[in-house]
Prior knowledge:
It is a single chain. The protein has one helix at residues 2-34. With 45 residues, it is mostly helical. The chain starts with a helix and ends in an 11-residue tail after the last helix. The mean pLDDT is 82.
Amino acid sequence: MQSSKLIVLIERIAISIFAALLLYFIVTGLFSASGWDHSWPYPHH
């Protein structure tokens, strides 16, 4: 019983990390596409 709880916890952590990375790439991609990153020290254009 203990091992199944651990597996569920690991799955939740992995999904959370994946969702956060996906959101990060989407947000930075939108900033690059819209030109909002021109004031950043290292623009991607």
